[in-house]
Amino acid sequence: MSGTDYILGLFAIVTGLAIADMIVSLHGLLMNRRNVTWDWLPIVAAAFVLLQIIATWRAFYVGFQGALKGPPIWVFLMLLTQNIGLYLAARAALPDHVKVGEPIDLGDHYDHVDRYLWSAILVSYAMVIILMGLEPFLLGSRQFPTIFVQLLIVFPIMLSLVIWPNRRLHRIIVPMLFLWICIRLLPARLLIT
């Protein structure tokens, strides 16, 4: 490893921890959104900090790659937003605070977080769809056309989970989505289509 690799590793850890802390705070606010007194100033300040971190990543990318310029900042922001959506969904999927000996009803938990969970996944999918839709303009060709079409088909199905938090509907669609992702991802040959 070069000295640059050590420096980038340290910055990745520090900035990753900073962003993870912001996402955990965002998760807590969104899960408790009905009891939060919202104020625009801390939201704008947090957005400033997040953009500053992204700008720092971009500067390191440009500086350490010896490039004249890096990808546009909005590309970094969209990729980060996609990952934040997945992180928020992961945080919501299972209860955060389970204490030994105390009963917990996973059905009640799902009923409480279902819209939040699927909204977070939709944000992630939307970012991927937008970036893949822009690929022909950015790269001159579409790298994964099959996945792009599949995401366009699945997006409205997931949207139905957000719009209609009906347990019977979810019991049909969620297993279908799980089967779809297993079929799409598990065979090695499909990973590069």
Task: Considering the chains and any ligands shown, give keywords for the structure.
77% helix, 193 residues, globular, mainly alpha, single chain
What does this structure look like?
The protein is an all-alpha fold and 193 residues long. The protein has helices spanning 3-31, 40-65, 73-93, 106-139, 145-163, 167-185. It is built from six helices and no strands. Helix 1 (3-31) runs antiparallel to helix 2 (40-65), helix 3 (73-93) packs antiparallel against helix 4 and helix 5 packs antiparallel against helix 6. The protein is globular. The mean pLDDT is 84.
The N- and C-terminal alpha carbons lie at a distance of: 33 Å
Structural class: mainly alpha
Instruction: Give the total of beta strands.
Output: 0
Q: Multimeric state of these chains?
A: single chain
As residue ranges, the low-confidence spans are none
Q: How many helix segments?
A: 6
Q: Secondary-structure element order, as H and E? A: HHHHHH
pLDDT averaged over residues: 84
Measured by DSSP, the beta-strand proportion falls in under 5%
Q: What is the makeup of the main sheet?
A: none
What overall geometry do the principal axes of the alpha carbons give? Answer: globular
| Radius of gyration computed on alpha carbons | 19 Å
**Residue share in helices?**
over 70%
